[in-house]
Amino acid sequence: MAAESSFDIVSKINHQEVDNALNQTAKEVGTRFDFRGVGASITWSGDKAVEIKANSEERANAVLDVFKEKLIKRGVSLKVLDAGEPKLSGKEYRLLANLKEGISQDDAKKISKMIRDEGPKGVRAQVQGDELRVSSKKKDELQDVQALLKGKELDVALQFVNYR
Predict the structure, then answer these.
(1) pTM of the full predicted structure?
(2) Which architecture characterizes domain 5-12+103-161 according to CATH?
(3) Domain 15-99's class?
(4) 50-101 pLDDT, tens digit each
(5) 99 CB-contact burial (10 Å; exposed 0-12 / middle 13-18 / buried 19+)
(6) Residues 6+ away with beta carbon under 8 Å from 84
(7) Beta bridge partners of residue 159, listed in sequence order
(8) Which of 8, 45, 79, 86 is most buried, with most CB under 10 Å away?
(9) 3-state class of 161 per DSSP?
């Protein structure tokens, strides 16, 4: 009798890479000609949010674009970034971008339903907190599930870990 194989589906953020991207963005904003004299800055606002300040809405969005570009270069999915709209606060515009980590209950239910409906028959998916455990008797079926999920356009950045 074959032992059961499994893997976990998680949505984690590599905080070091995000911090590096933020520092690179801050450095570029400080040196680029088009950001001179507009009061543009980007800083951490707590441990799961980034605050962007500038004197115009366009400049705040431009800083956000630079930050997104740096995230992509560092291999961080833009699905973890939940950016709001620039809001006027006094004389400057502030834009708050939250970082999403973990799989919400609704997303976990959608993913497990997708696996049940479209995946191989012998595969089971169960929600465990903010992650999903997928198990099957055949490793090939688990690889099919990974391929299925990679091919779908989901709202969360997924990683496959704990493969055994």
Answers:
(1) 0.85
(2) 2-Layer Sandwich (3.30)
(3) alpha beta
(4) 999 999 999 999 999 999 999 999 999 999 999 989 999 888 999 999 999 8
(5) middle
(6) 95, 96, 97, 98
(7) 10
(8) 86
(9) strand
